[in-house]
Write a structure and sequence with these properties.
Length: 237
Amino acid sequence: MRINKYLSTAGIASRRKVEEFILKGQVKVNGKVVKDLSCDIKDTDIVYFNNNIVRVSQNFDYYKLHKPKGYVTTSSDDKDRKTVMDLMRGVHSRVFPVGRLDYETEGLLIMTNDGEITNILTKPSSDVEKIYMVHIDSGITKDEIKKLSLGVDIGGYTTKPCRVLPIEVKDDFSKIEITISEGKNRQVRKMMEAVGKNVTLLRRIQIGEIRLGGLSRGEYTKLNQKEINYLKSLKKK
Ligand code: URA
């Protein structure tokens, strides 16, 4: 297994982040610093991160968290803002967010140390659907809904067709659900901007078969067995 995949599967961080650690010389294989990202790890190799042995475990932890707005989804922040890690203080294993929600966005975030699941859910070719609830401070026409669902230009990229479901439409407030299977940076906000709408609340309510359910803002809970089985089924695809 490639060294970056090995470290991310072991739950150290995302593949991209572990590549930074490797290039900074924080990773050793059999006692020697390795900066070659193409290094392959064999069963007999011993891998160290910051001089601690890294093992790929099969006993992973899975949580869902309701991220409130005003938190970043990275493990540390150069502007000293609160991170979702601050909300997971009661959890003793090192779990990391699967993918991102922007600072202003709230809702479902899966937290785990299972790097393979993180890789599967965040790779660009992942087709797992994510559902967002969007509040805007105006109405929305059938035409605008059609435009959104066929795909809009969000600055040089046209979004893929998606499902857009109006839940409530009034002149000064509307609530819609958008289901997308891609995850460009701030995608839903940019899509709404493309049709001239002002988002007043954005909440992710579902990832694949995992629902936010009744979790309050800032609250987390372990995934139940059915939810874990669903995530594990993605590994077999
Ligand atoms: N779309 C956004 O605009 N923001 C997110 O955090 C996720 C999807």
